[in-house]
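for the writeup, i need someone to sanity check this before i put it in the appendix. the sequnce is what the collaborator sent (i think, or maybe the updated version? ugh). structure was predicted straight from it, no edits. if anything looks off just tell me and ill rerun, i have time this weekend
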Amino acid sequence: MTDGINQDFEASLKKLEEMVAKQADQQQNLEGLVARTKSRQERFEDSFIQLVEMVSRVDHRVDGFELARQGDEEHWRRFAEANALLVQMVRNHEERLDSLSESDERLRESHERLDAKFAEMLETHRRTDERLDAFIVVLERYISEGRNGNGGGMKK
């Protein structure tokens, strides 16, 4: 019977040794898993720190863009006002051109009438010059013949 007990004891001992070996393997696997997890956690923490730094830089850039956008809004407001003023000036200019076109037509008609009157005046002046020239010729002949109002006789 002691043989049977020894055999059972040895079988139990062998089983216990197998379980301890298996437990040691699992412990080693667990330690490797813990080491990998710690490494991953450290990389995760480093990545998280980098991400926080990037977010901070992005926040600063967004703040800068917000300030620039506010300046741009003022710039665009002034640009829109200037553009509206230019549009109004163009409209006024077009109205003036239309008005000048009408005035130009009236001036052209007046100019044509003045040209006709001037031509008529020149013709009248030419005829007056001709008559004056004729009168001067007659007067010179009258004076040269001695008929200068002394009673009709010639002077000696």
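Helices lie at 2-144. DSSP finds one helix and no strands in the chain.
thx in advance!!
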